[in-house]
Amino acid sequence: MFSNLLIKFFIKNNEDIQNEEVRNKYGYLAGAVGIVANLLLFIVKISVGLITSSIAVTADAFNNFSDMASSIITMVGFKLASMPPDKEHPFGHGRLEYISALVVAFMVMLVGIQFVKSSIERILNPIPVKFQLIPFILLFISILAKLWLSNFNKFVGNKINSSALKAASVDALGDVFTSSCVVVSFLAARFTNLPLDGYIGILVSLAILYAGFTLVKETISPLLGEAPDLDLVQKINEYVLSYEHISGVHDLIVHNYGVGRCIASLHAEIPSNINIMTIHDIIDKAEREISKELKIHLVIHMDPVCVETKEVSEAREEIQNIIDSNSNIKSMHDFRVVGDGDKKNLVFDIVVFHENKVSDDDLIDYINNEIKSIHPQYNCIITVDREYH
């Protein structure tokens, strides 16, 4: 409820998330909310930590301070990522949003490392922690605040598909856990004189490190070139196949240059006997309309397929049966029969799974041997493709 009120108050046309300006405003709003919330939490926790001499509370306070800095970096990341394309970066600067999320992740890990050291020192040289009711209540309220902040970042991150805000959500949720550990430590001081503060501080620090490591994994993936979203893959395939004369699609590759900056290419199978100008107009139309609909830049390569004859149909069926019997092969495409007379070449591509451990040459030899056992006059010319999604 409060999240929606914030969005409606600060962002005009907030439902038009495909608009880059609106999307950036979401990022700025989430960053500003994170700065204000974490600054208030830092002030509360550092005060409690100093009053009660608790290293665990102090560690948690500086974790909130680093979160405030990370919110600033997130806002800067949105600003830089929105810069228009230039000569050096013709596809824009969208990946800077991922880089800003990666910087935030490393900052979280740095805080964790620092407070592992502080907690070990406190274990070796314990100082009694004083339980006081008002600071305890303030810490409990901070947990509720972090829980709301995590949900807010998750809500906005999902709405605009932002890896930076999704990372901020995970970080805030980790803070809920770490603050809960601090509250337990603080509460335990009321009932025992055992030096639990340093040990709880270790748990808090390790949780911070784990959250940072998780964020690094999640934010570095798109920079390395992760597989595209399956929903996007399905939509591209379905849209292309909806156009007249296109009978199949394959070799789809999606390059991600930041949210809303995807370049996709694929091969579309068309009848080889169709008028070239007719199918060229259809392909042009498909590229233009699908690019606009899905907010991507789509390039379609035309693959003519053999006109169906009895010989082509029977040869394709036999090859398909051979492929179906091998669990290492996912599919076949671009099938055609080339040559005259007794000797014929069966030319086609096969798609194999990424986890396949059988060599390409072994698969090619397997198919060739199988088909020659049926038709010695056939020779297979095979290209092996890897699935990209």
From TrEMBL:
InterPro entries from the UniProt entry: Cation_efflux, Cation_efflux_CTD, Cation_efflux_CTD_sf, Cation_efflux_TM, Cation_efflux_TMD_sf, CDF_Transporter
Transport as UniProt keyword: yes
Top-level division of the source organism's lineage: Bacteria
Transmembrane spans: 26-44, 96-116, 131-149, 170-192, 198-216
Pfam families: Cation_efflux, ZT_dimer
Domain Cation efflux protein cytoplasmic residue range list: 229-304
Principal location: membrane
Family to which the UniProt record says this protein belongs: Belongs to the cation diffusion facilitator (CDF) transporter (TC 2.A.4) family.
Cross-referenced NCBIfam families: CDF
Protein name, per record: Cation diffusion facilitator family transporter
